Amino acid sequence: MSDSVKQNVQDRKKFDTFTRYFIYKSIQIIVQSRLGEKIITKSNPTATRPDWFNLAIIDNNDVQTEARKVIAGQQNLLSQNVCTEISLRTAEGDAMVLELWYISLDTNQFDPDASISYTVYNRMGIALKSVFSVSRVTPAYKLARKQKACASDYVICYRVYLGEPNFYFLGDGYQKSKVGSAPSPYGTLNVSVAYRTKLLISPQKTGKEAPFFVKDDHFKPEGSEKQTSPPRPCYIRNRRTSASELDTQLSGAELSSTSPAQKGDKPPVHLSQPIRILGDNLVTQKEDFRPKSAPEKQSDFREFHRVGAFVQMPSSRPTIRKEVDDIPFLTLLQPTSYQNTADVQSIVIKPMLSNGTIGNTKVENTNIEITNSADSESNKSTSSLTSAPEDFVMVELKTPFYGADANSDLGKFYRECQTVPSLAMFEEDPSVTETLDEITTQLEVFESNMNDFDDFVTSLQQDAE
Amino acid sequence: MNARAHVFELALEGREIEEVVGSLFNTLLLHRTLGKFQYQQEGSFSTGTVGLVDEDCDFIDFTHVRVASEELNVQVKREIGAFRDTLRNLLTPHSGQISLEFYERKRARWLFQAECIPWEVWTVKLDVITLSNEHDRQIYRDRLAEMLMEKVMHISDIMNRHEYVPKMPSQAELDLIFDTSFLDVQPYLFKISHQANGPSYSSVGTTMRKFIKDTLSL
């Protein structure tokens, strides 16, 4: 008897461990699928240290920390649902919940005969494979994959919390689907997803308005949502980590999520509250093209910082101002150092040592040779922002198909081609009788001129002879 | 034993055949593939890790997950490619079906030859259509992606019912249940067969049964 009790205790312990890792791995799969990148892991037939559920899932540390923090808040594992919320935040400050993934334990449905070590473990593995598959087909996946290209427009965020999922924020017509389940002797572990189907942001429902939402279970102590942290960007891998930089990018609300000590001081940030979130491209758009903001960190964002032709580095600007204040465009002729820029190889500047004077000011002429100026055509207008505005007359370049929204221009062009109007000659189609009359008239005219034609032919024959 | 049968019916353009069938079959194989077993001694083995790859489609806005195994991928692609060629070479009618059948084998015994018994069959029936312009094509492409999404969710639903799969075999009988020919992963034994023009009623099991009956009647 005591043996069976002991066995039960061991099984329960195993089940709790498996469940805990099942939750961690589920959250990893969901959040990593929203990074906007393709995930590729390798199979390993001779794994010396077995991976959880025999699946190659590389843990993201930030997500793992977040998940652990949330799970630690539970006395009994899955006494409350574990929810992962995926939301979208636009550059204008609007926010929209895209989907809610929630893991629950249904204690009313159980499989008393299932072995924990083998059957339940394998079932959990299959459920995780389903999470993999389904996470790639919901509308949020497509948005996440496009977020790098549209970083100036929106970013995708995630939030993990305990409690009932807030379907209210998914808007009308949202869909719910059970993704995976693993029946066990202690209940059935379920993973479900609810996702938004209407992806248009309506202004009255955005965070700017901050509607006061009263939940029907407001006074319910158990089961009501615990706001553990505000949404965090999924695309974290390339986020700039310096605290000072984060200060300029993130609101205090988001910063509080990284520091447990501060968490209690701030009110929980509701999803509909606008929270400043970034991806690397967003940072680039907002600040990194301005050398004033962080010139000393140039090497940190080499990957995306391109220096256009004629761009002045900030260090050289003060001296230029003193010497050539009165002469427009003269800064273009100054030798410039590009040691710290990523695209230095694309611009070669060879100083010519012939001295000359322009006006009353003695200057040093330079010969500027640009070897690959077309390298970053799309960055031309942005690059011009980096130079001293006083020295430049801004000339807007309008290259074909390039504009604020290149996609829409191309789309417009394409649509115009498709819906090209038909030719007028086809629209004014004469009737058959009119055509016949016209032919008759023409024949009559030709017959009346028959003598002229004969004369012409005769004259040609005479010429030939 | 009756095999579970599931049928998907879709209409699509010829160029989408490979990606649509590939999306469905790769999702199925993902759920029916385990890590490679490494036996230390009889009764004791360790399981390898299954890697995963996000696979984007070119002709539809759709991504699915497949098992990270080049060998398995090549084999599945080859079978689907043959089906595509058969279907596209047809003048009329443009329709056909391709099946992914999971089966287990019974060893040959004295009078009886080896038998393959299917336990799960997934059939994709396709109607190949021709769209007249790019506008219609775009609309249909979006619709097709939605349909594939529904199918993937349906597959997940079925897989998580945890219905019959063959019992875990001993080391000696491993190749009766699993395809051990792959170096990196271990799917359940499967077979892909296709047919153009009309439904196929034959499977490995029924074919073998017919063969055995014919042999005995001699």
Automatic annotation (TrEMBL), chain A:
Protein name listed in UniProt: Autophagy-related protein 13
Any one annotated GO CC term: phagophore assembly site
InterPro entries on file: ATG13, Atg13_N, HORMA_dom_sf
Coiled-coil region: none
Residue ranges annotated for the Autophagy-related protein 13 N-terminal domain, each copy included: 89-198
Gene Ontology process terms (BP): autophagy
Subcellular location field: Preautophagosomal structure
Signal sequence extent: none
Feature: compositional bias, Polar residues: 241-261
Keyword tRNA processing set for record: no
Residue segments, region Disordered: 215-272
Pfam families attached to this UniProt entry: ATG13
Biased composition (Basic and acidic residues): 215-225
Location, primary (coarse class): other
From TrEMBL, chain B:
GO terms classed as biological process: autophagy
Keyword Nucleotide-binding: no
InterPro entries per UniProt: ATG101 (IPR012445)
Pfam families: ATG101
Keyword Cytoplasm: no
UniProt record similarity statement: Belongs to the ATG101 family.
PANTHER family the UniProt entry points to: AUTOPHAGY-RELATED PROTEIN 101
Highest taxon in the source lineage: Eukaryota
Protein name: Autophagy-related protein 101
Keywords: Autophagy
Organism: Sinanodonta woodiana
